[in-house]
Design brief:
single chain, 265 residues, alpha/beta, Rossmann fold, seven-stranded parallel beta sheet, two-stranded antiparallel ribbon, 11 strands, 51% helix, 17% strand
């Protein structure tokens, strides 16, 4: 896979992707908003894994800054062989009565940015005849949990369509669809998850290892763990009225959201 570019690399799954890819001796391009965390991570990866880590500071909810990342993906001098579209955020607000500007920023980050970066990466990779794109979706893509579900449903469907288009080119597209993962995501989003049982949670290390193994195999939909593959199968077969009932239950469990604007990474 050569060089890997990881968005949202300073925290959560992005941080785990960075470490596992570095351990596998891939040079990295680390993308996130927090320059201090990125520089510290780059130094740790270079010292600990003996690889080269570039830092690319960008707010991926800003179209102009996204274009700088797209330009890096188009660079043929140090070509990127794997794009990991990981950056995301938890809004933790109801749509009705919520801040529309924050909804638009989330849409930009989790829908427009993967679109733009996948386009840049796919064109460069197809021209070289090799490469891989990994888009982080969620099991929420099959549920009815507000606009987050809608964003992740788009990522999942988009990635499937991209995989069809890329067939035979030497380039693959994979959508990672995990459930709850032990990372900073919920803490940074100030999302109360205390009502969810321990069995619902996955380890970031296992999720990332499964995702990268599936990328190597050319798997289109990567769902870590048997329990979430079972959930996914049930969600696909269940009537949508049942899925909406689950959404209403989650709303009751989680209570009134608190405003937050903190992207993962």
């Amino acid at each position: 896979m050569g060089i890997a570019l990881v968005t949202g690399a300073s925290a959560g799954l992005g941080l785990e992707f960075a470490w596992q890819l570095a351990t596998a001796k891939h040079d990295l391009v680390l993308v996130a908003r927090d320059e201090q965390r990125l520089q510290r991570l780059a130094a740790q990866l270079e010292a600990g894994a003996g690889i080269r880590a570039e830092v690319l500071v960008a707010d991926l909810a800003d179209r102009a800054q996204v274009e700088r990342v797209a330009d890096r993906l188009r660079d043929d001098e140090r070509p990127v062989g794997l794009l990991v579209n990981n950056a995301g955020l938890g809004l933790n607000q109801h749509f009705v009565g919520g801040d529309l500007a924050r909804e638009e920023a989330a849409l930009d980050l989790m829908v427009r940015t993967p679109l733009v970066l996948s386009h840049a990466a796919a064109e460069a990779m197809v021209a070289r005849g090799r490469g891989a794109i990994l888009n982080v979706a969620s099991i929420a893509a099959l549920l009815a949990s507000g606009t987050y579900s809608a964003h992740k449903a788009w990522v999942r469907t988009f990635t499937e369509g991209l995989a069809v288009e890329l067939k035979g080119t030497g380039v693959t597209a994979t959508a990672l669809c995990p459930g709850f993962v032990h990372t900073e995501f919920h803490e940074r989003g100030r999302i109360d998850v205390s009502a969810y049982p321990q069995v619902a949670w996955l380890n970031a290390e296992d999720v990332v290892a499964k995702a990268l193994a599936d990328v190597r195999r050319g798997v289109v939909i990567s769902t870590p763990s048997l329990r979430y593959r079972t959930v996914a199968a049930a969600a696909r077969l269940a009537p949508r009225s049942a899925i909406r009932a689950v959404g209403r239950y989650r709303k009751a469990v989680e209570g009134t959201p608190r405003p937050v604007d903190e992207p993962a990474g």
